[in-house]
Amino acid sequence: MIDAFRLSELNAGVWRRGDWVSVYEDRRLSPAEILLLLRHREPLSGRVLELGPGAGRVTAYLAELASELTALEISPDMAEACRRRVPSATVEVRDMQDLGGIAGGSLEAVVGTCNVIDVLDDGERRALLAELHRILVPGGVLLFSSHNRDHRARRPWEPRDWRNPKALAGDVVRLRDGVRNHRRLHRFERDSDDYTLRNDEAHSFSMILYAIGAAAQQRQLTEAGFTLELCLTDDGEPVDPGGAPDRSPYLHYAARCSSAS
Ligand SMILES: C[S@@+](CC[C@H](N)C(=O)[O-])C[C@H]1O[C@@H](n2cnc3c(N)ncnc32)[C@H](O)[C@@H]1O
Protein backbone atom coordinates (compact mmCIF):
# COMPACT_ATOMS: atom_id res chain seq x y z
CA MET A 1 0.00 0.00 0.00
CA ILE A 2 1.43 3.38 -0.96
CA ASP A 3 1.51 5.74 1.99
CA ALA A 4 1.21 9.51 1.99
CA PHE A 5 4.91 10.07 2.52
CA ARG A 6 5.94 7.92 -0.41
CA LEU A 7 3.44 9.45 -2.83
CA SER A 8 4.51 13.05 -2.24
CA GLU A 9 8.15 11.99 -2.22
CA LEU A 10 7.72 10.20 -5.53
CA ASN A 11 6.27 13.33 -7.14
CA ALA A 12 8.72 15.68 -5.41
CA GLY A 13 11.63 13.56 -6.69
CA VAL A 14 10.37 14.01 -10.24
CA TRP A 15 9.98 17.79 -9.88
CA ARG A 16 13.30 18.27 -8.10
CA ARG A 17 15.10 16.97 -11.19
CA GLY A 18 14.15 20.28 -12.85
CA ASP A 19 13.75 18.67 -16.28
CA TRP A 20 10.86 20.82 -17.46
CA VAL A 21 11.94 24.39 -16.78
CA SER A 22 11.62 25.33 -20.47
CA VAL A 23 8.08 23.89 -20.63
CA TYR A 24 6.97 26.38 -17.98
CA GLU A 25 8.91 29.37 -19.35
CA ASP A 26 5.76 30.73 -20.85
CA ARG A 27 3.58 33.77 -20.29
CA ARG A 28 0.28 32.40 -21.53
CA LEU A 29 -2.64 32.16 -19.14
CA SER A 30 -5.75 30.05 -19.66
CA PRO A 31 -9.12 31.84 -19.89
CA ALA A 32 -9.99 30.52 -16.41
CA GLU A 33 -6.75 31.91 -14.94
CA ILE A 34 -7.38 35.32 -16.53
CA LEU A 35 -10.88 35.42 -15.07
CA LEU A 36 -9.70 34.41 -11.59
CA LEU A 37 -6.99 37.09 -11.57
CA LEU A 38 -9.38 39.78 -12.82
CA ARG A 39 -12.12 38.93 -10.34
CA HIS A 40 -9.78 38.82 -7.35
CA ARG A 41 -7.69 41.93 -8.04
CA GLU A 42 -8.43 43.29 -4.60
CA PRO A 43 -7.08 40.46 -2.39
CA LEU A 44 -4.32 39.89 -4.95
CA SER A 45 -3.15 43.48 -4.38
CA GLY A 46 -2.16 42.54 -0.80
CA ARG A 47 0.25 39.96 0.62
CA VAL A 48 0.24 36.94 -1.66
CA LEU A 49 1.74 33.46 -1.43
CA GLU A 50 2.21 31.35 -4.55
CA LEU A 51 2.59 27.57 -4.30
CA GLY A 52 4.85 25.90 -6.87
CA PRO A 53 5.41 28.88 -9.20
CA GLY A 54 7.48 26.88 -11.69
CA ALA A 55 9.38 29.23 -13.99
CA GLY A 56 7.14 32.16 -13.07
CA ARG A 57 4.39 31.91 -15.70
CA VAL A 58 1.73 33.28 -13.33
CA THR A 59 4.18 34.85 -10.86
CA ALA A 60 4.96 37.60 -13.39
CA TYR A 61 1.31 38.71 -13.32
CA LEU A 62 0.92 38.31 -9.57
CA ALA A 63 3.97 40.56 -9.10
CA GLU A 64 2.17 43.31 -11.04
CA LEU A 65 -0.68 43.19 -8.52
CA ALA A 66 0.69 42.18 -5.12
CA SER A 67 2.17 44.47 -2.48
CA GLU A 68 4.28 41.53 -1.28
CA LEU A 69 4.78 38.25 -3.15
CA THR A 70 6.41 35.09 -1.83
CA ALA A 71 6.60 31.83 -3.77
CA LEU A 72 7.53 28.36 -2.49
CA GLU A 73 9.08 26.07 -5.09
CA ILE A 74 10.51 22.60 -4.53
CA SER A 75 12.75 22.51 -7.61
CA PRO A 76 15.92 24.63 -7.32
CA ASP A 77 16.11 25.00 -11.13
CA MET A 78 12.50 26.17 -11.37
CA ALA A 79 13.06 28.58 -8.46
CA GLU A 80 16.10 30.03 -10.21
CA ALA A 81 14.18 30.51 -13.46
CA CYS A 82 11.34 32.14 -11.52
CA ARG A 83 13.74 34.55 -9.77
CA ARG A 84 15.26 35.49 -13.14
CA ARG A 85 11.85 36.23 -14.59
CA VAL A 86 10.39 37.98 -11.54
CA PRO A 87 13.19 39.58 -9.50
CA SER A 88 10.69 41.43 -7.28
CA ALA A 89 9.22 38.16 -5.89
CA THR A 90 10.77 36.33 -2.95
CA VAL A 91 11.20 32.78 -4.26
CA GLU A 92 12.17 30.16 -1.68
CA VAL A 93 13.20 26.59 -2.41
CA ARG A 94 10.78 24.96 -0.01
CA ASP A 95 8.06 22.32 0.10
CA MET A 96 4.67 24.05 0.07
CA GLN A 97 3.62 21.79 2.96
CA ASP A 98 6.16 23.53 5.16
CA LEU A 99 4.14 26.59 6.18
CA GLY A 100 4.87 26.50 9.92
CA GLY A 101 7.00 29.66 9.77
CA ILE A 102 4.18 31.79 8.32
CA ALA A 103 2.11 33.67 10.87
CA GLY A 104 -1.63 33.04 11.14
CA GLY A 105 -3.87 35.55 9.34
CA SER A 106 -0.96 37.16 7.51
CA LEU A 107 -1.93 36.82 3.82
CA GLU A 108 -4.75 38.13 1.66
CA ALA A 109 -4.37 35.50 -1.08
CA VAL A 110 -2.81 32.13 -1.87
CA VAL A 111 -2.46 30.96 -5.48
CA GLY A 112 -1.65 27.45 -6.74
CA THR A 113 -2.09 27.15 -10.51
CA CYS A 114 -1.60 24.22 -12.87
CA ASN A 115 -2.81 21.60 -10.38
CA VAL A 116 0.18 21.99 -8.08
CA ILE A 117 -1.62 20.68 -4.99
CA ASP A 118 -2.43 17.43 -6.83
CA VAL A 119 1.08 16.16 -6.04
CA LEU A 120 -0.15 15.49 -2.50
CA ASP A 121 -2.01 12.51 -1.11
CA ASP A 122 -5.44 13.00 0.46
CA GLY A 123 -4.23 13.45 4.05
CA GLU A 124 -1.53 15.87 2.98
CA ARG A 125 -3.95 17.83 0.83
CA ARG A 126 -6.41 18.23 3.70
CA ALA A 127 -3.59 19.26 6.05
CA LEU A 128 -2.39 21.82 3.49
CA LEU A 129 -5.89 23.30 3.11
CA ALA A 130 -6.15 23.61 6.91
CA GLU A 131 -2.76 25.38 6.99
CA LEU A 132 -3.80 27.73 4.18
CA HIS A 133 -6.92 28.59 6.15
CA ARG A 134 -4.72 29.36 9.16
CA ILE A 135 -2.36 31.74 7.30
CA LEU A 136 -5.05 33.61 5.35
CA VAL A 137 -6.91 36.56 6.82
CA PRO A 138 -10.66 36.04 7.30
CA GLY A 139 -12.14 36.80 3.87
CA GLY A 140 -8.82 35.98 2.16
CA VAL A 141 -8.93 33.98 -1.08
CA LEU A 142 -7.48 30.71 -2.26
CA LEU A 143 -7.21 30.34 -6.04
CA PHE A 144 -6.14 26.96 -7.38
CA SER A 145 -6.78 24.29 -9.97
CA SER A 146 -7.03 20.54 -9.74
CA HIS A 147 -7.42 17.52 -12.00
CA ASN A 148 -11.08 16.80 -12.62
CA ARG A 149 -11.96 13.26 -11.64
CA ASP A 150 -15.04 13.32 -13.87
CA HIS A 151 -12.87 13.80 -16.96
CA ARG A 152 -11.62 10.48 -18.31
CA ALA A 153 -7.84 10.11 -17.99
CA ARG A 154 -5.81 9.10 -21.04
CA ARG A 155 -3.49 6.07 -21.05
CA PRO A 156 -0.03 6.33 -22.69
CA TRP A 157 -1.06 4.28 -25.74
CA GLU A 158 -4.12 6.44 -26.43
CA PRO A 159 -3.46 9.40 -28.75
CA ARG A 160 -4.66 12.80 -27.61
CA ASP A 161 -6.23 13.58 -30.98
CA TRP A 162 -6.15 11.35 -34.06
CA ARG A 163 -6.94 14.30 -36.33
CA ASN A 164 -4.01 16.45 -35.18
CA PRO A 165 -0.78 15.26 -36.90
CA LYS A 166 1.49 17.38 -34.66
CA ALA A 167 -0.05 16.05 -31.43
CA LEU A 168 0.02 12.52 -32.86
CA ALA A 169 3.74 12.79 -33.69
CA GLY A 170 4.45 14.02 -30.13
CA ASP A 171 2.48 11.10 -28.67
CA VAL A 172 4.48 8.61 -30.75
CA VAL A 173 7.81 10.15 -29.64
CA ARG A 174 6.76 9.93 -25.98
CA LEU A 175 5.08 6.52 -26.24
CA ARG A 176 8.03 4.42 -25.04
CA ASP A 177 8.73 6.54 -21.92
CA GLY A 178 5.01 6.79 -21.20
CA VAL A 179 4.44 3.03 -21.32
CA ARG A 180 7.56 2.33 -19.25
CA ASN A 181 6.54 4.84 -16.57
CA HIS A 182 2.98 3.59 -16.57
CA ARG A 183 4.09 -0.03 -16.07
CA ARG A 184 6.19 1.06 -13.10
CA LEU A 185 3.57 3.28 -11.46
CA HIS A 186 0.08 2.05 -12.24
CA ARG A 187 0.08 -0.28 -9.21
CA PHE A 188 -0.01 2.84 -7.03
CA GLU A 189 -3.29 4.03 -8.52
CA ARG A 190 -6.18 4.22 -6.03
CA ASP A 191 -9.88 4.96 -6.18
CA SER A 192 -11.92 6.23 -3.28
CA ASP A 193 -15.43 7.67 -3.03
CA ASP A 194 -14.22 11.26 -3.29
CA TYR A 195 -10.98 11.16 -5.27
CA THR A 196 -8.57 9.04 -7.29
CA LEU A 197 -4.80 8.82 -7.34
CA ARG A 198 -3.91 8.21 -10.95
CA ASN A 199 -0.92 7.88 -13.21
CA ASP A 200 -1.55 11.13 -15.03
CA GLU A 201 -0.26 11.87 -18.53
CA ALA A 202 1.80 14.87 -17.36
CA HIS A 203 5.48 14.57 -18.23
CA SER A 204 5.28 11.15 -19.87
CA PHE A 205 3.19 9.56 -17.12
CA SER A 206 5.95 9.99 -14.54
CA MET A 207 3.77 10.90 -11.54
CA ILE A 208 0.79 9.74 -9.50
CA LEU A 209 -1.56 12.70 -9.16
CA TYR A 210 -4.74 13.41 -7.24
CA ALA A 211 -7.99 14.01 -9.13
CA ILE A 212 -11.25 15.11 -7.55
CA GLY A 213 -14.72 16.03 -8.77
CA ALA A 214 -16.14 19.48 -8.16
CA ALA A 215 -18.74 18.41 -5.58
CA ALA A 216 -16.17 16.53 -3.47
CA GLN A 217 -13.76 19.47 -3.78
CA GLN A 218 -16.48 21.76 -2.48
CA ARG A 219 -17.02 19.51 0.56
CA GLN A 220 -13.28 19.31 1.21
CA LEU A 221 -13.00 23.11 1.12
CA THR A 222 -15.94 23.49 3.48
CA GLU A 223 -14.32 21.06 5.95
CA ALA A 224 -11.16 23.19 5.89
CA GLY A 225 -13.13 26.39 6.62
CA PHE A 226 -13.48 27.78 3.08
CA THR A 227 -16.53 28.73 1.06
CA LEU A 228 -16.37 27.80 -2.61
CA GLU A 229 -17.20 30.94 -4.61
CA LEU A 230 -16.45 29.93 -8.16
CA CYS A 231 -15.64 26.82 -10.16
CA LEU A 232 -14.56 27.22 -13.80
CA THR A 233 -13.60 24.96 -16.69
CA ASP A 234 -10.25 25.57 -18.36
CA ASP A 235 -12.12 27.68 -20.91
CA GLY A 236 -13.44 29.88 -18.14
CA GLU A 237 -17.03 28.65 -18.20
CA PRO A 238 -18.67 28.60 -14.77
CA VAL A 239 -19.78 25.14 -13.70
CA ASP A 240 -22.22 23.92 -11.10
CA PRO A 241 -20.17 21.72 -8.75
CA GLY A 242 -23.14 19.38 -8.30
CA GLY A 243 -23.34 18.77 -12.06
CA ALA A 244 -20.18 16.58 -12.31
CA PRO A 245 -18.80 18.53 -15.29
CA ASP A 246 -16.71 16.15 -17.40
CA ARG A 247 -15.66 18.34 -20.32
CA SER A 248 -12.67 19.98 -18.67
CA PRO A 249 -9.56 18.00 -17.63
CA TYR A 250 -8.85 20.56 -14.91
CA LEU A 251 -11.17 22.69 -12.81
CA HIS A 252 -10.25 26.08 -11.41
CA TYR A 253 -11.52 27.12 -8.00
CA ALA A 254 -11.86 30.34 -6.03
CA ALA A 255 -12.59 29.81 -2.35
CA ARG A 256 -12.90 32.30 0.47
CA CYS A 257 -11.63 31.85 3.99
CA SER A 258 -14.93 31.89 5.86
CA SER A 259 -13.76 32.75 9.36
CA ALA A 260 -10.73 33.07 11.58
CA SER A 261 -9.12 29.76 12.62
C1 LIG B 1 2.71 21.92 -12.98
S1 LIG B 1 4.01 22.97 -12.46
C2 LIG B 1 3.13 24.51 -12.40
C3 LIG B 1 4.00 25.72 -12.40
C4 LIG B 1 3.24 27.05 -12.28
N1 LIG B 1 2.38 27.08 -11.11
C5 LIG B 1 2.43 27.32 -13.52
O1 LIG B 1 1.20 27.36 -13.40
O2 LIG B 1 3.02 27.51 -14.59
C6 LIG B 1 4.12 22.54 -10.72
C7 LIG B 1 5.24 23.24 -10.00
O3 LIG B 1 5.10 22.96 -8.61
C8 LIG B 1 6.36 22.59 -8.07
N2 LIG B 1 6.12 21.68 -6.94
C9 LIG B 1 5.79 20.37 -6.98
N3 LIG B 1 5.64 19.88 -5.74
C10 LIG B 1 5.89 20.91 -4.89
C11 LIG B 1 5.90 21.03 -3.48
N4 LIG B 1 5.62 19.99 -2.69
N5 LIG B 1 6.21 22.23 -2.94
C12 LIG B 1 6.50 23.29 -3.74
N6 LIG B 1 6.52 23.23 -5.08
C13 LIG B 1 6.21 22.06 -5.66
C14 LIG B 1 7.08 21.92 -9.24
O4 LIG B 1 8.47 21.90 -9.07
C15 LIG B 1 6.62 22.77 -10.42
O5 LIG B 1 7.46 23.87 -10.61
From TrEMBL:
- Name the chain's protein: Class I SAM-dependent methyltransferase
Which keywords accompany this UniProt record?
Answer: Methyltransferase, Transferase
Native species of this protein?
Baekduia soli
Biological-process GO terms, alphabetical: methylation
In alphabetical order, the GO MF annotations are: methyltransferase activity
Q: Give a yes or no for keyword Endoplasmic reticulum in this entry.
A: no
Query: A Pfam family matched by this chain, by name?
Result: Methyltransf_25
Methyltransferase domain spans which residues? 48-140
Identify the InterPro entries for this entry: Methyltransf_25, Methyltransf_Superfamily, SAM-dependent_MTases_sf
